[in-house]
Each structure stands twice: as C-alpha cells, then as structure tokens.
Amino acid sequence: MTTTRGVTIGLSVLLGIMSGSAMAQSVDDQTQEALGQKKESVRKQKEKLLPPDEALSMKDKEVAPDAYQAKGIDLGNFMLMPKAEVDLIRNSNIYAQNYNPKFDLIHVYRPEVALNSRFDRHSITATLRGEEKQYTRYSKENTTNVLAVLGGRYDLSDQNTLNANLSYVQDHGSRQPG
Fold first, then answer.
1. Confidence (pTM)
2. Mutual orientation of helices 39-46 and 27-34 as an angle, nearest 10°?
3. How confident is the model at residue 172 (pLDDT cuts 50, 70, 90)?
4. What is the average pLDDT value for the chain, to the nearest integer?
5. 54-101: per-residue pLDDT in tens?
6. In angstroms, rounded to a whole number, what is the distance separating the alpha carbons of residues 117 and 126?
7. CB–CB of 135/106 below 8 Å?
8. CB atoms within 10 A of CB 21
9. Handedness of CA 26, 27, 33, 38 (dihedral sign)
10. What DSSP element (H or E) covers 151?
11. CA–CA separation, 149 and 147 (whole Å)
C-alpha cells in the first residue's frame, strides 16, 4: 500500500468512449457524444432513473442544503473560512520494499484557513494550509508541509484587471523505494 504525499494534489481525467463508426451515427448519437453522455445514461434519464439535466449541471453549493454549506466567520468586508481534516492511515509497507516490509499507523492533520474579500470591486484572497504526518512507530519519517498563498485582483475597468499572486511552499520530497 502506498500513500500519496503532498499538500495539494489535483487530478482531472477526461474519458471519452466511442463505439461504432462516426459515419454511421445518427444526429442524436453525435449530440450525446458532444455532451459527453453515454447512451446508457440517456436511457436511464428518459426512464426517470437519473435526475434531469438541470440538476446534473448545477454546482454543489446550489444542490446541497444550507445545513451542509460552510458558513465561515463574517469579518465585515472579509469572510474567514477555517477548515480542518484528520486522517488515520494504515500502511503495511511504509518504505515500499519488496522485502522486510514495515507497518505503521500514520496520523495526518490538515488545518487550513482562507480569508476572502467581499468587495464590490477588486479582490484579495489569502490561504494558509498545513499538513503534518506523524508516524506511530517510525517517527523519523514525520513530515510537515506548508502552503501560503496571497492573491489579489485590481479592477482597472470593466474589461481590464491587474492580477497578482504570491505563494510559498514547503514540501518534503518523496522517498524513493529501495
């Protein structure tokens, strides 16, 4: 079992499935492919087994009830958004070796705080995120990662803006197996 290390990891996958020749497709099939829909999902939608297109295109904050939305802390022209995550990882081979594997429990703490402006014009954002991994048996493998981002937008006019971002990253290197 391997663990993925780092402060932020993003993955975006675009999967397209094409069946049959393009020349033999009807207009509906071409439209479905252009929308990224599979024939099976269209059938389920027609049979009322899937939500309507409007619900599928809505953002999470529009779909989730207010009780599940982060409220944040109102600071006048700014909104403070604190966040914390705690994970417990069981890794049966922390060094990823073919022989003599080492087991450990890893406690992961991820505090984060974001400060976002709510100005009519212009924008300021600041984010501070940390990640600390604490190994139960092999404490020499403990790591701390930090990300700090300060960004802003100055609106010169309706069409022209100046953007600036400043970031600091402290990240540990991944151990190479061997």
1. 0.58
2. 100
3. confident
4. 74
5. 656 666 555 566 666 678 899 999 999 999 999 999 999 998 889 999
6. 9
7. yes
8. 7
9. negative
10. strand 143-155
11. 7
